[in-house]
């Protein structure tokens, strides 16, 4: 955490600290300018909600944090890699980026506390907000409901012998304060923290933390805290085939050679049953230096894609949909720019 983006100012006789969870985003706010569009998610079926045991905390849907895997056919590895990069860097989310600390008596420094706040995933409809630019620097006195979400945290430990010597401050202490103009979000309970048990700091007797945190819309391109996934990868599908019939002892040998049970014996002959379990160990290609006609190769036109969502979006499918819509918008913009260019004829 850099001290260059930390400023102190006096307000009504108190010294407050203004800091950011990711300093470079304050200096390069232009990175947050929107480059795509967010799709509608109407029509998706409702999911069951899991309420928290903490009073006043909005419930978080059970499938917000999930691993989603799907197959893509008739695609190439560059296309799959493009989708992976768009998901990591171009799908917008909300994350805490500005923090106004009124009081912090704990051992966690202001900058480290702000950084921890920024890494708490915020469940909110990013499409309902606008990106910030350098000209839209948030004002703590009158924040814009079109740009920010406000969270308040105020935890004080009494200076009494009966108080516990150490008090943990969890993310559940962050309370969303709807701004004027955000009544619809409050009514729909559309804003909450994904995790309520993230440890932010520890306080002793007589210590207090009081702050205001503001979440803004951003992209993973500017900082990883805006990434909607913790992991995103793809793998080309594996093809396993037999070039000749295997029966009798040969079939038994190839079945026993495979450690993941890809093969099975049916009607006295070896068959490929579960090619997706192949780990490319190639133990079946040559058994006891005998070529049994087993071919193992990657299918470069079929890809298995997997993402692990962080919980900012209601459903992992929304992340894929937003990424594809963003890429389609990029392609349309490129087509328009090419059409507007005057390309000289080299033969002229």
TrEMBL record:
<dbReference type="InterPro" id="IPR036643">
    <property type="entry name" value="RNApol_insert_sf"/>
</dbReference>
<dbReference type="InterPro" id="IPR011262">
    <property type="entry name" value="DNA-dir_RNA_pol_insert"/>
</dbReference>
<feature type="domain" description="DNA-directed RNA polymerase RpoA/D/Rpb3-type">
    <location>
        <begin position="67"/>
        <end position="337"/>
    </location>
</feature>
<dbReference type="GO" id="GO:0005666">
    <property type="term" value="C:RNA polymerase III complex"/>
</dbReference>
<dbReference type="GO" id="GO:0006351">
    <property type="term" value="P:DNA-templated transcription"/>
</dbReference>
<dbReference type="GO" id="GO:0046983">
    <property type="term" value="F:protein dimerization activity"/>
</dbReference>
<keyword id="KW-0804">Transcription</keyword>
<dbReference type="GO" id="GO:0003899">
    <property type="term" value="F:DNA-directed RNA polymerase activity"/>
</dbReference>
<comment type="function">
    <text>DNA-dependent RNA polymerase catalyzes the transcription of DNA into RNA using the four ribonucleoside triphosphates as substrates.</text>
</comment>
<dbReference type="InterPro" id="IPR036603">
    <property type="entry name" value="RBP11-like"/>
</dbReference>
<dbReference type="InterPro" id="IPR011263">
    <property type="entry name" value="DNA-dir_RNA_pol_RpoA/D/Rpb3"/>
</dbReference>
<protein>
    <recommendedName>
        <fullName>Plastid-encoded RNA polymerase subunit alpha</fullName>
    </recommendedName>
</protein>
<dbReference type="Pfam" id="PF01193">
    <property type="entry name" value="RNA_pol_L"/>
</dbReference>
<dbReference type="GO" id="GO:0005736">
    <property type="term" value="C:RNA polymerase I complex"/>
</dbReference>
<dbReference type="Pfam" id="PF01000">
    <property type="entry name" value="RNA_pol_A_bac"/>
</dbReference>
<dbReference type="InterPro" id="IPR050518">
    <property type="entry name" value="Rpo3/RPB3_RNA_Pol_subunit"/>
</dbReference>
<comment type="similarity">
    <text>Belongs to the archaeal Rpo3/eukaryotic RPB3 RNA polymerase subunit family.</text>
</comment>
<comment type="subunit">
    <text>In plastids the minimal PEP RNA polymerase catalytic core is composed of four subunits: alpha, beta, beta', and beta''. When a (nuclear-encoded) sigma factor is associated with the core the holoenzyme is formed, which can initiate transcription.</text>
</comment>
<dbReference type="InterPro" id="IPR022842">
    <property type="entry name" value="RNAP_Rpo3/Rpb3/RPAC1"/>
</dbReference>
<feature type="region of interest" description="Disordered">
    <location>
        <begin position="1"/>
        <end position="25"/>
    </location>
</feature>
<dbReference type="InterPro" id="IPR033901">
    <property type="entry name" value="RNAPI/III_AC40"/>
</dbReference>
<feature type="compositionally biased region" description="Polar residues">
    <location>
        <begin position="16"/>
        <end position="25"/>
    </location>
</feature>
<keyword id="KW-0240">DNA-directed RNA polymerase</keyword>
